[in-house]
Design goal:
The structure is a homotetramer. Chain A is an alpha+beta fold. Chain A has three helices and six strands. A six-stranded antiparallel sheet of chain A has the order 1-2-4-5-6-3. In chain A, a hairpin with a 3-residue loop joins strand 4 and strand 5. Chains in contact: A-B, A-C, A-D, B-C, B-D, C-D. At the A-B interface, helix 2, helix 3 and strand 3 of A face helix 2, helix 3 and strand 3 of B.
């Protein structure tokens, strides 16, 4: 399952574009990181809200995927992101966690922080759906 | 105001990374487009949810900005995206619209569609905040 | 289908508590109304955000239900409400509409307005799930 | 501040309608409870999604209010609720917590659980705004 999640992660062209890296995948808990780069900025030179959201989405998606039966695929149904403060950091870390895993839907939460994981830039609530092959 | 919005848009390194282009800025209504590229994909080869969301966020942000006093800056407070169907398209179009513009907060909605603007891939509800210089 | 939706509506004890009435159910479009009463207020004497949300949720739920196969039940997966302005009105109207109806999930939008349906107090994006008997 | 929050809570006609009670108000953390009653049900006889949401909203609102300067008023800007499982319980408890308190906006999270506070029925992310008198 973990390997399937890793394979799927590295098939996402967009993760390469962001320079995102998988830090860890446990059952129901996924951590990603991404270094600051000018190509990821909004108009004030900080990490773009879209980058924070993309990482949080993927962390939630693979957290959900890690608890699904072998051969399942995961898709985002919806998510909401709140932006707590400007994301000024050399690196951001996105942690996605499964709150409730169901047969069809999985509900996850994520936070995006600085390297210390103590300064929160954004939080997400997300619904993921399991597609059986 | 329109020029300030354009300038601000092109200062976003992330928009260049996505290959996003401003199609139009009117008062309270902004349209962006983005061509399909492998660097923007999720694991099945479609546009990534994070790309759809980033474009919708920026369309909302500049729609809000276009109605703010000169010299204002705009930041995303929060947004929610619902994903209606897989985003298989040669090009996507994000349209952001101001629903209610206040002194501090502006409430916007966006949709992301295919080229015909008839097939909806995602919708967003967003709150933007006006920062005075 | 319409009758099943009506029956289900009137089985909701909470709708009676609010004094909510079904105005119309068409396929994918449901309208409710609710008169102002002190029992529905927040601390400034206007309609409570929870009342606006409850009506919008139910309008979305039955809009979704009206497009499901006979014998289906509907449950709310999640919703988000934005509050546009204080809800000072003698009566509020909640209109829920199906944006995309799928086998399992249905995506809806709703607005809550005054009697003229022109002054918007709140908007909702909601995901509903179909439970088969 | 705590007393001002209590006064404001008991001015909400809708809280009396629900039979909601303030359990505790600390700085940035508010707990409410509400006993089951048929007048609060959806079509299957459980607590209505609108009731869960209303309690979560109010718990967030007063958590935010408890950190605002004396004489401030609080209004809900927006919130999102995810429904984790049907709310079958003799009593529900809503706990709202401030995640980030700013001069204008306060970001809160809430959960609604059963009496043990271990079975989660719903979670909320909410943005509150401070209105100065």
């Amino acid at each position: 399952m973990t390997d399937a999640s890793k394979d799927s992660f590295y098939r996402q062209g967009f993760m390469k574009t962001l320079g995102a890296k998988l830090v860890s995948i446990e059952k129901g808990l996924v951590k990603l990181e991404c270094d600051f780069h000018k190509k990821l900025t909004q108009q004030h030179g900080y990490f773009h809200a879209g980058v924070l959201t993309s990482l949080a989405d993927v962390a939630c998606g693979y957290a959900a995927h890690s608890m699904m039966p072998a051969g399942s695929e995961v898709l985002s149904v919806e998510f909401k992101t709140n932006f707590i403060r400007p994301a000024k950091a050399a690196k951001i870390i996105a942690t996605g966690e499964v709150i409730k895993s169901g047969k069809t839907l999985t509900f996850c939460e994520a936070k995006v922080t600085d390297e210390t994981e103590e300064v929160i830039f954004a939080t997400m609530q997300a619904t993921m759906i399991c597609l059986k092959k």
